[in-house]
Amino acid sequence: MVFLAFAVALPNLSPVAVEDFAGELVSEKLGRKLDPLSPAPNDRKTYELIRSGDTAGMFQLESPGQMSLQRRLKPRRLEHIISGISLFRPGPLQADLLTPYVARKNGQEPYSVPLTELDDILRPTYGVLVYQEQLLEMAQRVSGCSLAEADSLTAEFMSIDPSTRIRSG
């Protein structure tokens, strides 16, 4: 769970990018190759502990809100935990993005996207916009703009009142 610290330090990167970066750093430190995308089989107990909500003392998971979220989210992969941390911020909470993410992740609500062209961008997060990187990719895909133009669009999007930005569903 050492990778959670990187998720917080680098919140605009996708979970895979964070895991790769963290894996390289930890591998260097340990002197052996560590693949964060293939956790050790004994990690099962760590995930069980997190799913129980008994996360007091775990960085980024120790607040009462996160404890409750982890019980509802029932994470089975690091990506679930990182997405939960990313969505547990004022903007996404005001826009109520956690509710559809949790419901879709747990199979209680069907996955959907507004445009089929966005499926590969939003499928990893169950059709919910979680990361700024996803917004950049969506803007580029839908409008055909450059990454620089997409970045300007993202900056404008981030200046809008979060409760009026986007509703998942």
Question: Would you give an account of this structure?
Answer:
- With 169 residues, the chain is an all-alpha fold.
- The protein folds into two domains: 1-88, no CATH class; 93-169, no CATH class.
- The chain is built from eleven helices and no strands.
- The protein has helices spanning 4-9, 15-30, 44-52, 64-73, 78-87, 90-94, 98-105, 119-122, 132-143, 147-158, 162-165.
Rg is 17 Å
Helix fraction bin: 55-70%
What's the overall average pLDDT, rounded?
Answer: 83
Q: How would you spell out the order of helices and strands? A: HHHHHHHHHHH
> Ends: how far apart?
31 Å
Outline of the structure:
The chain has helices at 4-9, 15-30, 44-52, 64-73, 78-87, 90-94, 98-105, 119-122, 132-143, 147-158, 162-165.
Any chance you could write out the topology, listing elements then pairs?
Blueprint: H1 4-9, H2 15-30, H3 44-52, H4 64-73, H5 78-87, H6 90-94, H7 98-105, H8 119-122, H9 132-143, H10 147-158, H11 162-165
Helix pairs in contact: 4-5, 9-10
Looking at this protein, list some descriptive labels.
single chain, 169 residues, mainly alpha, 2 domains, 57% helix, 0% strand
